[in-house]
Amino acid sequence: MRAINAILYAVTGVVLLLIIGPLALVVLASFSSGDYFSFPPPGLSLRWFQEFFSLPNMRSAFLLSLELAVGTSVVSIVLGVMAALYVSRRRGRMSGIMQSLFMAPLVFPTIILGLALLLCYRLVGMPILPGLALAHIVVGLPYCFRATLSSLQSFDVSLEEAGSSLGASPMRGFLLITLPLIWPGVVSGWLFAFIVSFGELNTALFLTGPGVTTLPIEIFSYLQFQGSQLVIAAASTLQVAMILLLVLLVERAIGLGRIVRS
């Protein structure tokens, strides 16, 4: 038994090292005072964060990614809650078909999804920004749907029926009875949709254009064609910091344990 526990601890340690190690290396590199990547860094400085915000393309891409992540995650959670409510109230083959439909974006590679959307947009003449926002909604919707559906599956429908018998309308019953009981799932779905949207690269590769470039695309092109890895490290550190701050706020509100269960 002790040997099995030792093996499990060793495997867990290796996995954590593989996950946290590269992130820690990038964060440390972003504070380097040197001109090139080196480990350990010759000193600590904020020069690369200043360089990041002094680049108009990086700054505008960061703001666009943030706006897209906030806007599309809100739309995704609204649609996900509506879809989860419909599926949770239905039984039979149609419910299974609807679940498969809403979870389909997780099955197909996002690069294929981006190519398919690009071809569709060319047929209908979709503008770049609305098309990109729609793609982010499609990518984030499965997380919102599944997290909300998990909360609804443990929800006692008789509570809604009791509210209805007392004169509450369906909307009022949802806002006053259902939503307060399933909100951990709703918040966790929104959180995952925000994180996925903020870091989405594969789909956006096909759908961005002049003047409409998200931060992951700008990082990719800057690293490939222009230069300094340390500016990219600073951009990546800002992404990590924003996500950690958001996770911390959500943890304060509902607890990470409830998010994981959702």
What does the model show?
This protein is mainly α. It has 12 helices and no strands. It has one domain (49-261): MetI-like (MetI-like fold), CATH 1.10.3720. The model has no long low-confidence stretch (mean pLDDT 79). The protein has helices at 2-30, 47-54, 56-88, 93-107, 110-124, 128-153, 157-165, 170-198, 204-207, 215-225, 229-253, 256-261. The longest helix is centred in the first third of the chain and has 33 residues, at 56-88. It is globular.
Short description:
With 262 residues, this protein is an all-alpha fold.
Shape field = globular
Estimate the helix proportion, in percent.
over 70%
CATH topological fold name? MetI-like fold
The appropriate CATH architecture is Orthogonal Bundle
Strand content: under 5%
Class by alpha and beta content? mainly alpha
The number of distinct helices, counting runs of at least 4 residues, comes to 12
Overall pLDDT level: 79
